Amino acid sequence: MSKKQNETEVVKHHLIQRRKPNRSVGGDIGVYIFLLLVGIAMVFPLVFAINMSLKPLDELFMFPPKVFARNPTLDNFADLFVNMSKSTVAFSRYVFNTVFITAVGTAGHLLIASMGAFVLAKYQFPGNQTFFKLVTTAMMFTGYVTQIPNYIIISKLGWVDTFWACIIPAFAFPMGFFLMKQFMEGLPSTLIEAAKIDGASEWKVFTKIVMPNVKPAWLTMIIYSVQALWNNQQATFIFSEEKKTLVYALNQIMGGGIARTGQAQAVLIIVIAVPITIFMFTESQILETMASSGLKD
Amino acid sequence: MSSKYFDKYVTLRKHNAKVAWKKAKISKMCYLFLAPYALLFTMFYILPVINSIFFSFTYYNILEPARFIGIHNYVSLILEDDVFLIGVKNTFMIAIITGPLGYVLSFLFAWLINELPRWIRAITIVVFYAPSISGTLYTVFKILFQGDYYGPVNSILINWGIIDAPILWFNDPRYMLPICMVIILWMSLGAGFLSFVAGLQGIDGSQYEAGYMDGVKNRWQELWYITLPNMKPMLMFGAVMTITSSFGVCDVTMQLCGYPSTDYAARTIVTHLFDYGFSRFEMGYACAIATMLFLIMILCNKAIQSLLRRVGT
Q1: pTM for this entry
Q2: Taking all residues of chain A, what is their mean pLDDT, rounded to a whole number?
């Protein structure tokens, strides 16, 4: 009996210890309620999209509309693969294109950017500071500024209407490089020096010592690269229908008007499920990487 | 006399160059490792900026060789192109409202969820970050704000008797920009937000304990005197992310309000760039737009960075 009491005392003590001493209870409750309300507002569009994709046709056009599907069905998803397999380009083809572009682009980005980030983080050589400054500056304007000249360069290279137009520029994505370099700086130099004394070459050091130790940064690179490539429409670079991506298909189906609402939401769910799922499973590692994301100067 | 100094200077420079060359030779491995990335980075990030500045002074339509026309593109952009000015106005309105607000909200939420228990915090981060990481989830607003009776927002407002006829949300210039801004704010908890969350987790707890001893009374004092000064590098990173995305707005407005939108009410600088670059193939003109956007982004970043450097000093 007294033992149990003792235990509760310990637990109580522990709880009190964990609370910061300068917080008011009222303030904490207020914060929780506020976060709950904002969280509901943030998640509502997602819940709505999921329910729309599960609604049968008669529920999609009900007045007044309901948020939750009463008789959820997977018909909309089946329609995508069954009905659209008879169209000029099968739905599965869009899926394949997107998966291919995302996988190859991410793998190349991971290898090439990590190699560069490794020497920039761990060695002193003429020009390293300048190059890193250029990369951080690129993060400040990246995106649409370079779209037009990129198109000119890609067309000069003869890559228009090939997957390379999407894949190769993605290798040079500056944010992945930046985050990897920042994270590698936190790696103890003694680890590398010890391997070198044992006679390992730079390449061995990179593949056997450095890369296995920066897994959180890999995952972060992967999530940002996947997010960019997966949602990449690149309608400007690719005009053959059989090379288009999922997001393009999504826009086409949405453009098909309200009769396609259910199917459009089904594609949307497929499109957003991938980045969200990856993020859910890698969250703690990504946060570990972001801890070193700060810009110092 | 002066030539003697000059000779000395030349020999010194020669010496320096030799030393640098020797150093470079020693670090041959480093250059080999960096080469693939450096090559691609130059090709798709540095060269485009230089190209863009070059072509902005020419008339270029890809088919014919570029013809030099001086600053004519810039003159017509600023003096003759009313639609561009609408785009600039809209972009600045979006950037000035959603940029700072989104930035502050990112920090506020990161700070508030920092003290939640671990599992709840992990779920909250997913919920808050989902709109940004999902990329295309915002297209669901097209259905929420559908313009007919069946559109959820319209039907709720009609049921409650607030309006008696459906509103064409994305066709009426009065509603287009405000709705887009709300959606952009909803998506604004991005990479900067994650950086803030991670940074807050990394602050050494002993600093807070020292703070209690020194009489930090409530969470607001703690925020100002301990948390913010510790977060400076993350605040910088977040600012870069926010500025880049808020001046680059185009996806949300193009998807939801159409392209072109009614009365160009949702036109942004980037939309204008697409219009001239990929619809009319006036590459020179489009490059002038891109160069201006580039300058706006870089200048704004530099200004905000020098401002943030003063936090906690």
Answers
A1: 0.86
A2: 84
Residue-number span of the structural domain to which B216 is assigned: 80-308
Host H or E run for residue B70 = none
Strand, helix or coil for residue B59: strand
Domain that residue A245 falls in: 84-290
Please check whether residue A295 lies inside any domain of the structure. Answer: no
Please list every residue in chain B whose beta carbon sits closer than 8 Å to the beta carbon of residue A134: 41, 45-46
Q: Is the pLDDT of residue A233 over 80?
A: no
Write the residue in A136, A174, A261 that is nearest to B143 by C-beta: A261
Residues of A in contact with B240 (CB under 8 A): 136, 139-140, 295
Residues A124 and A247 in one domain: yes
Q: Are A274 and A226 in contact (CB under 8 A)?
A: yes
- The dihedral built from the CA positions of residue B209, B215, B219 and B221, taken in this order, carries a sign that is negative
CB pair distance less than 8 Å for A265 and B143 = yes
B33 touches chain A (CB under 8 A): yes
- To the nearest whole Å, the CA of B1 is away from the closest chain A CA by 34
A129-178 tens-digit pLDDT: 899 999 999 988 867 888 888 888 888 888 888 888 889 999 999 999 99
The answer, yes or no, to whether the previous bond of A126 is cis (omega within 30 of 0) is: no
d(CA B15, CA B23): 12
Q: Is the dihedral of CA A59, A64, A65, A67 positive or negative?
A: negative
Chain B partners within 8 Å of A151 (Cβ): 277-278
Q: For the residues A36-49, what does the mean pLDDT come to? A: 93
Q: Work out the mean pLDDT of chain B and round it to a whole number.
A: 88
In-domain check, residue A78: no
Percentage of chain B modeled with pLDDT above 70: 99
CB contact under 8 A, B136 and A250: yes
Q: How far is B245 from chain A (nearest CA, A)?
A: 9
pLDDT of residue B224: 84
% of chain A exceeding 70 in pLDDT: 90
Please report, for chain B, how many H helices and E strands are present, in that order.
Answer: 17, 2
- Residue contact A118–B141, C-beta within 8 A: no
**What pLDDT sits at residue A7?**
61
Is the Cβ of B270 closer than 8 Å to some Cβ of chain A? yes
The secondary element (H helix, E strand) that includes residue B68 is: strand B67-68
CATH number of the domain where residue A158 is located: 1.10.3720.10
Question: CA-to-CA distance for B287 and B289, rounded, in angstroms?
Answer: 5
What separation in angstroms does the CA of B29 have from each of A202, B33, B39? 8, 6, 16
User: How many structural domains comprise chain A?
Assistant: 2
Q: Side chain identity at B30, as an amino acid letter?
A: C
What is the domain-level CATH number for residue B86?
1.10.3720.10
- Give the HSE-up count for residue B107: Cα atoms under 13 Å, Cβ half-sphere: 18
> How does B142-177 read in b/e, with b if 16+ C-beta sit within 10 Å?
bbbbbbeebbbbbbeebeeeeeeebbbbbeeeebbb
